[in-house]
């Protein structure tokens, strides 16, 4: 038997090949697999890729100026990869995954890695820049006016907005008639054609690229004017009021030979200590200005062994666990109890009660925290007046902690009520009815059937709630602000959580310690991650038992 011929009218076709349709040309595989790009889609692609190119060019200049060649290389490779990916008709899944991945790296992975790297440094107030920056700051801060110092006519100006722009000094020399502009980066001469100098006062009244402030505007920023120091060779220029400036001589100078700072007036010497990033004298005195250095595990050791840090850390950690467990446990118990009551078929008007009970959940939490803070006020608070009490709720350690837990109970039970209601509706009534037939009491039925099934469904939510409450900064800052504080320890209060303690370390009035704060943040992450991992493992075992 001969094989049948295949043709336009034949019923037999080659396997795996699409038959040609009469009157239509056979399309290529590329055309079949990819829909044509519309004009709108093309415009969107061009705009987005143009935006990517613009951002890459904008980011390249600071990297080149700072000589961060590795960062520049990563930027170039990433930009080239994005152009290849979105100009190619291949790698369709990657086109959807890459944007989310880049945002994940930029806003999650990079901040975590930066925080971890900061924990191994002494980064903080007095240790923010390099050693050269510290030397300049030490020398310029010790500048004093001496006989014969050059004096200038001073005009205060800004680059941009007069109220918020960075300040500069516009200086005119009465003797040479030269005009200069100075800031923290140094002094440079201005072209006479770019400035206007008053013939009466000798002050600069206008300059290209700068906004000259009047007396009222300059007075409003007098603190910043006083703090601005313009470094020069062997000295610095400082303001003397708002209309005059002088070039003084630094009393303290850096000597590269001994790698030390010497005070010409007292003769005292501070030698550089690279381990701590400071200039230290023989008697142990450190200069305020230091530089950022790697300190290894010093911050971690201090958190665990230094009594001044470890004592408040472990005390706060114990309360932090109590707060997180109490906030999660009490809200769960109350929410579940209400959900069980409304789940009863004998209960009438359940929809009305449910709407009423979730009102705390519908209100903005930060506003409710402020309201509760006033309700616990000793003198005019509703709690004391309603119950006839005379309790200084936020004045004592335990009363403040109880108040915080009560506020959390009111704010958190509606959420637990909602999730428990949903979980109860998913439990077949036949199971509880079967226990009743077997002679079990309602309590026995709840303990043997309802509660285990609820925990299987709600355990992940309880773990998430614990992690959230462990770092619930709003609950503390908006009510007690971490207090009450002991007289000898203004950094750590009785109701502080580790996160608020960390915030105070990083941004407190006593001086920022970013390296130490980053170390505490790593401990917080490790604690929450460990507790969550153990809890999820137990949850999986529980699911296996009741599955």
TrEMBL record:
Region (Disordered): 1-31
Membrane-spanning intervals of the chain: 42-63, 69-87, 96-114, 317-340, 352-372, 402-427, 448-468, 514-536
Gene3D superfamilies recorded: D-maltodextrin-binding protein, MBP, MalF N-terminal region-like, MetI-like
Keyword line: Cell membrane, Membrane, Sugar transport, Transmembrane, Transmembrane helix, Transport
ABC transmembrane type-1 domain: residues covered: 317-535
Recorded superkingdom: Bacteria
Lipid bilayer topology: Multi-pass membrane protein
Subcellular location(s) per record: Cell membrane
Cross-referenced SUPFAM superfamilies: MalF N-terminal region-like, MetI-like
Pfam family, one: BPD_transp_1
Entry-linked InterPro entries: MalF_N, MalF_P2_sf, MetI-like, MetI-like_sf, TM_PBP2_N
Stored PANTHER family: MALTOSE/MALTODEXTRIN TRANSPORT SYSTEM PERMEASE PROTEIN MALF (PTHR47314), MALTOSE_MALTODEXTRIN TRANSPORT SYSTEM PERMEASE PROTEIN MALF (PTHR47314:SF1)
Family note: Belongs to the binding-protein-dependent transport system permease family. MalFG subfamily.
Described function: Part of the ABC transporter complex MalEFGK involved in maltose/maltodextrin import. Probably responsible for the translocation of the substrate across the membrane.
Name this protein carries in UniProt: Maltose/maltodextrin transport system permease protein
Organism whose genome encodes this protein: Micromonospora maritima
